[in-house]
Structure formats: structure tokens, C-alpha cells
Amino acid sequence: MISKKYLKAALVAALLSTGYAQASGELVFNGDFETYTGTAFSGYTTLAVGDTTLTGWTVGAQSVDIVNGNYGAISGNSIDMLGTPGPGSLQQSLSTVAGQKYTLKFDLSENSDAAPQLYVSFDGGTTLAQSYLGTGTTHSYMLDFTAGASTVLKFTSAAAGNGGAVLDNVSVMAAVPEPETYGMLLAGLGLLGFIARRRKA
């Protein structure tokens, strides 16, 4: 005879084994860079290290430029990571759950004629890729990562050149389970139902 306690434990195990991620919202604040509290500008304006006018983001290295309507801007405000006078970085601390998988998405274009590079890192660790390239046509990039208790997301421009990779529409959300994960979950629940019916019989 199978006890209720055993059935509950089996159900929990089935749910955990699927890798199901509880739904959660957007973790990046101001990922489209539209919340800017500085003075009005035309074309572009420079944010130096320590500037706080780009709400939610910390500027590092040398500088970044906000661009709008020109210089490779994607939609509304975008960020040319190769600022004036030199390459910069942007970072933001995210409230993540340790061990949870997340998906980072972002768009890149270029303010350049030479496919500038952009580096991405989490918590100061090794960059996950060294060849995110801005080009004349906007490209969308996506990558998955496993988070710690909190995560510092950082974008860093490559070395100085004529222009930088232009960043926009940054998003981080909990990774969505693959369709086969749902199949495993349903199979597990069906098995538990079958066991419960046998127990009643």
C-alpha cells in the first residue's frame, strides 16, 4: 500500500526532475535606456565614469555615449559602448536565484565601419563570448546562464576604434522550459495518478 506521504514526495520529485522554472518577470531595469535624467541632447551625449543619469546602470572604464536618431541608434535611446573619448562599460546588479537558469537577450548595431566587438560577463567572471559584433544591420543575440544568489551583468567595449558596438533592448528573464520538459512533467503526473488509482482499488 502506498502512503499519501510517499505520493506527495514522488510528486515533488517529479516536478523537480523536470527542471521547471517558476515564471518570473523582467530582471533588467531600464534595459531600453529610455529612462535618462540628464540634459536634452541631439544626436549623442557622453556619460563618463560615475555618471548616474542613465537610471539603473553604472558606467565604467572611460565612457559611453547615448545615441538617438543617428550613430547606429536602434530604437529611441541606444548606447554606443565606445564612448568619447574611449571604450566604456555598463553594468547592473540583478536579483537572481542561485542555480536558476536565465536567458539574456540584447540587440547590437554599430557606430563604425569595422564590426566593433562587445564583451559580456557575469559577476566579473570569464566573458561568455568574445565576438559579439555590431554590424550595419541590427542583430539580436541570446544566451543562457546559470546565476548565483545575485548577478552583476556587465557589457564592456573592445579597444578603441572609429566607433563602437551600439547596445539596446537588454533583457534577462528566467529560462523557459523546453517542450520536452513539459512532456516529462505530464508523464510523471500521469504515473502518480495511475499509482493513486491502484491504491484505491
Can you describe what's shown?
- With 201 residues, this protein is α+β, with helices and mostly antiparallel strands.
- The chain folds into 2 domains: 1-20 and 177-201, no CATH class; 25-176, Jelly Rolls.
- It has helices at 4-17, 179-200; strands at 43-48, 58-61, 63-68, 77-80, 88-94, 101-110, 117-122, 129-133, 139-146, 151-157, 165-174.
- The protein has a 6-stranded antiparallel β-sheet, with no helix packed on it. It has a 5-stranded antiparallel β-sheet with strand order 2-5-10-7-8, with no helix packed on it.
- A hairpin with a 6-residue loop joins strand 7 and strand 8 (129-133).
- The longest helix has 22 residues, at 179-200.
- The relative contact order is 0.22.
